[in-house]
Every structure is written in structure tokens, then in C-alpha cells.
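Dear support,

I submitted the protein below through the web form. The confirmation email said the job was done, but the results page showed an empty box. After a refresh the structure appeared. I'm attaching both so you can tell me whether what I see now is the final result or a partial one.
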Amino acid sequence: MAPAAGNADAQEILYGLHAVREALKAGSRPLQRLLVIRTDKQFSDLVQLARSLHVPVHVQPSASLDRLVPDGRHQGIVAFAAAKAYQTEESILARAVERNEPPLLVILDGVEDPHNLGAVIRTAEGAGVHGVFIPERRAAGLTSVVAKVSAGAIDHMPVARVTNTSRLIESLKAAGVWVYGVEPSASKLYTDVDLRGPVGLVFGGEGTGIRPGLLQHCDERIRIPMRGQVQSLNVSASAAVLLFEAARQRGLAAKS
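What the results page shows now:
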């Protein structure tokens, strides 16, 4: 393992056949994704091992890897290490059972800015969320930047990475979780819904919001009323509004 010179998150990059192979075998440092120049010949065993461990593999030209690791010392392979191991849907739901609480879950659709992800995790932990779900592709992962922005919350908040968010939502619904998509064009206000039961809140990524195909899987759509010219809040601000409304409702329910 060696740092990539000039990279802001140098400690997160592993490169070279030996370093990546040992990291995959040891499993002590979870990997977010693997970049390789091809999947055959000397890379085939590493690619197969990565896929068996559910580490996404992306084929990239050598020039892309050169930008991450100067002087071509990467040997055609680069891996990105996560700041924390990912959890599973089952372990997150079990956490709610252990606390004797109805699940309160956050589902993010394509949040690519690590600062936003870190802020959401910090808010989620403070509001009593049982777990956060993020997509495997086209989304920020658990990097050191996310860990820093979360102000330590990453160490207390389970995060699961899923390959298919639509399938996740259907699985949660089958487990009794009511899933709300938070988006500006919804007719119902977030203050008009009961957030005391098993709830999953879906928040969209920067710019595009929740993908239409994913919205179709939500039980209901809700919105935050906006009085200004801007139609929506930043995803971390939206999460704060919704999650602390849920915390307020659940706090009142616990006192009654």
C-alpha cells in the first residue's frame, strides 16, 4: 500500500497488484471500489475476488489511473478504501428491534458530494435514525472526508451500500416499512404525515433529486413547503427538517 502523491485523500488509495490483493484477502479494511485497466490475465483473480466480496469493479484506461498514481506505479490496478465497514439491511433492521423502536431509515439516491453525505450521517445520528442506505454506483461512499464532516457520527451510524435501491425499497416495504419520497412537487406536506411508525425517507441527489423510476416504488411523496424563489433545500438540510420532525413526533409518542 502506498499513498498517491498529490491526492487529497491519499490514505484512501491502494495501488499495485500485491497491495490490493492483500487488502482483499485480509478484509480488515473494506474497499469501496476497484479500478483496473482490464479484467483478464493477471487481473482476473483479483477481479473475481473483488466481485465475490461485492466490491464494484470498473474498467478504466491507464491514463485515468495515472492521474491517481503518478509515474504509472499502479501496475494497472487501484482500489479505494472505505473509512468504515458497510452494514446490511438485515443488521440495520435488527438494530431497531434491539432498541425496541420502529425503524427510522434514510435512503439516499445518488448523493455524490461527500460533504453532503457526511452532513446527512451527522443529522441522522442525532435524530435517532437506525441506518442510512446509499447506492453502490454514482454516489459518495464512506471516505475520510465523509468521516470528518460527520464529526464522529460515522462511528455510531450504520451505513449500508446497495446495488439496487428500488429492490431495497420493495424489501423494506415487505418488512412493514412505509417509504416516503421527499420531493418538491409532492402535494402532501411533511407535517401532515405520521412518522411515528416504521418509516423510510428517500432523499434525492444534488441537482436531479430522486429518479422518477425510484419514486414509483415509494408509498407516498411528501414535500417541505418553500416560501422563497428556490424550489428545494440542499439534501442535508432537507434531511434535518424531516428527521427532526420524526424525532419530535416519536418523542411525543414516547411521553404519552
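Response: this is the final, complete result; the empty box was a page-load delay. The radius of gyration is 20 Å.
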